[in-house]
Design goal:
This protein is α/β, with parallel strands linked by helices. Helix content is 34%, strand content 21%. It has nine helices and nine strands. Strands 7-1-8-9 form a four-stranded antiparallel β-sheet, covered by helices on one side. Helix 2 crosses helix 8. The chain is globular and about 55 Å long.
């Protein structure tokens, strides 16, 4: 049997993880029981009623959260010419073509999102074995293959996040920081769920949202399914 730390023991003693919570109650519980020395992220796990083995049922897209994620997003941009100049003016440090490709091949990992111009994709595709498994390949559905480099960078920094289901049909993403006001976290979640609802496969007859959990980086995962369903219906 795994021995709980004092912090985790305190959390288990104060929260009944078998019950469902309202979104605000869950967030407030996470805030109250956060005892770590850094600002935790607020994460969401959404279990979808899809069959991830069927390509047409896989979910992938993006949404602009009204209050952002509170995270400093690090961007890599594959571009040259005026698009590269635009990216550098906006403070992006990883900008280039072959030189950037070599950095990534040699182990560069200091980025969260990759943006590419359409012309640079022949080069980026060769990095598929590195970027693909991490979900970092640029994709037109996510707006990360574009000639509007400056606009895309600004949207990402203003709170746009990308999402896609994993092999188990679950979407994991961050919707804020634990020091956000609870109502702002709720509004971010509402925006995410409303966009996700639009991606429901037409052939899906079962419930699209099966389970929805909220957690902090070092906290427990709390069930907020019912309140979330009420939020978007």
């Amino acid at each position: 049997m795994i021995k709980l730390t004092k912090r985790m023991k305190l959390i288990h003693e104060n929260i009944n993880i078998k019950k469902q919570f309202s979104i605000i109650k869950a967030i407030n519980n996470l805030k109250t029981l956060s005892k770590v020395k850094f600002i935790e992220s607020i994460d969401i796990a959404i279990v979808l009623g899809i069959n991830p083995k069927k390509t047409e049922q896989n979910i992938r897209g993006s949404v602009s959260l009204p209050y952002g994620t509170g995270k400093n997003i690090k961007i890599a941009v594959f571009a040259d010419g005026k698009e590269a100049i635009q990216a550098k003016k906006l403070g992006v440090k990883l900008v280039g073509m072959d030189d950037l490709s070599k950095k990534i091949i040699n182990g560069e990992k200091n980025f969260d999102i990759v943006i590419s111009t359409p012309e640079a994709m022949d080069l980026v595709i060769k990095l598929g074995p590195i970027l693909g498994p991490k979900g970092l390949m640029p994709n037109p559905k996510l707006g990360t293959i574009t000639n509007n480099i400056d606009k895309t960078i600004k949207k990402i920094r203003d709170g746009q996040i990308n999402f896609r289901n994993d092999k188990n049909g679950i979407i994991h993403t961050t919707i804020g920081k634990i020091n956000f006001e609870s109502k702002k976290i709720k509004e971010n979640l509402k925006s995410l769920l409303k966009i996700l609802k639009k991606y429901k496969p037409v052939q899906l007859k079962n419930n699209f949202f099966k389970k929805i959990y909220i957690s902090s980086t070092m906290g427990l995962s709390l069930d907020i399914t019912k309140d979330c369903i009420n939020l978007i219906n």
